[in-house]
Write a structure and sequence with these properties.
229 residues; alpha/beta; Rossmann fold; four-stranded antiparallel β-sheet; 11 strands; 24% helix; globular; binds S-adenosylmethionine
Length: 229
């Protein structure tokens, strides 16, 4: 039987409702009035962090685009090699609730002094039009479902070559850009290939998740910056 949802926090913004809802043990996030994610299976959000950290020899600085429910960020912080994480989140209520410790999933992220939460559009940050400023060893983007099933049409450009080139430009030498997607996205892989310079490496990692009786294919799209600058 489905448990009914209890609203833990909600706020109206010019872009729509932002809310946290508890359904039994499960926490749900609504952004701009649209279901964004829940905590039923956060393995791919964690893998965005762990797979990226595994590929970098010394990931001291990390940018996470999209706080969500904090799973990617917490996984980044659990790596002692990481000195500082900038988390950029568009929905200001979410950052306020994280700072206030409104739910345990988001509580205490800034407490250890290695993590800073910022309210901004990560596209603007990557273009250098808003803080924080890089470069970063890892740039991890999980702001939407991926290029083919967008929740927010305004995020479409983040998956296109100019924004990906800006993200590449925000990487420190040897840095790694990784983009999470709820589906395989050949056009995103091609766009990464188009912005890659000599010495860069681009690839796709397919992640299979069993949910509600079905196998779902998620994917990570990575660009590792070579030494070509
Ligand atoms: C699916 S959630 C991220 C999940 C996160 N990886 C985790 O581990 O919980 C997507 C988040 O990105 C935020 N977001 C959407 N568009 C954004 C943008 N352009 N810049 C920054 N954050 C954005 C949403 O408000 C939401 O909090």
């Amino acid at each position: 039987m489905n448990e009914s949802a209890v609203t833990v926090a909600r706020e109206d913004t010019p872009d729509g409702e932002v809310a946290l809802r508890r359904r039994g043990e499960v926490l749900e996030l609504v952004v701009d009035g649209v279901f964004a994610m829940d905590t039923v299976d956060t393995s791919t959000e964690v893998l965005l962090a762990t797979e990226s950290l595994r590929r970098h020899p010394a990931p001291a600085t990390v940018l996470v685009g999209g706080l969500g429910l904090g799973f990617t960020t917490r996984a980044v912080l659990s790596d002692p090699r990481v000195r500082h994480v900038d988390v950029v989140e568009l929905a200001s209520p979410l950052v306020g609730w994280a700072r206030a410790g409104r739910v345990p999933e988001l509580a205490g992220l800034e407490g250890g002094g290695r993590c800073a939460l910022h309210v901004a559009d990560v596209g603007a940050v990557l273009r250098g039009g808003a803080g924080p400023t890089g470069p970063w060893d890892l740039v991890l983007l999980d702001v939407d479902n991926g290029p083919d099933f967008l929740v927010h049409t305004g995020n479409a450009r983040l998956y296109e070559a100019p924004a990906l080139a800006a993200a590449r430009g925000a990487l420190a030498p040897g840095g790694l850009l990784v983009v999470w997607s709820s589906h395989r996205a050949p056009r995103l892989l091609a766009a990464l290939g188009a912005v890659a310079a000599g010495g860069d490496w681009v690839d796709e990692v397919v992640l299979t998740v069993h949910r509600e009786g079905r196998d779902l294919e998620y994917a990570l799209y990575a660009l590792a910056r070579g030494d070509g600058g």
